[in-house]
Amino acid sequence: MTDAEALASIITTVQTAWMADVPAIADPNPYTLLRAGKERTGGNPAGYWARIVPTIVVQPLASFADENTFGAHKKRYQTYGFVTVQVFAPKSFGSDTKGRQIGEVIRDAFRADGQRGDVGYSNSRINRLPDDGGSWRFNVICDFRYDTIG
After folding, report:
1. CA gap 62, 14 in Å, rounded
2. What is the distance between the alpha carbons of residues 81 and 66, in angstroms, rounded to a whole number?
3. What predicted TM-score, i.e. pTM, was given to this entire model?
């Protein structure tokens, strides 16, 4: 698995849960899911939105890869990191509860997947952050692990 494939798997986990469950929670407000490095532009500022931010912590050499499977002189690296899904809810009556519900949907998606393809998830949790003046904020954080051959 490459880093790009792992990132795609992480995004798919969040996106699948987002598209399945967030519309029922956020309706009638708009909602937007962004990838890391993307800025929120346009749209209704009263909407719910989230940003996916994966972080690779370490990629140590784990072993030499199986020569018969991967070819000669290949190495297996274990990648460890965490993904933060930043959830923003408009500051209005009841929206803090809905923001937390959206966070629970995402947290539970990581828990349900446990492992999607070759990416393993563990220790998913929600942290409530102080409001930023215009939004209630929640971070869904989940550790991940996968192997790469190089």
Report:
1. 28
2. 24
3. 0.84
Residue reference for tokens 């989230």? 50
Please provide the size of the chain in residues: 150
| Blockwise average pLDDT, block size 10, the chain, 150 residues | 90 91 82 66 68 90 71 82 93 88 95 79 94 87 91
DSSP string covering 17-40: HHHHHHHHHHTTS-EEEEETTPPP
Task: Could you list the beta-strand ranges (E) of the chain.
Answer: 31-35, 48-58, 61-64, 75-90, 115-116, 119-129, 135-149
- Domains along the chain? 3-149 (3.30.2000.10)
Answer whether the bond into residue 23 is a cis peptide, omega within 30°: no
Amino acid letter for position 24: A
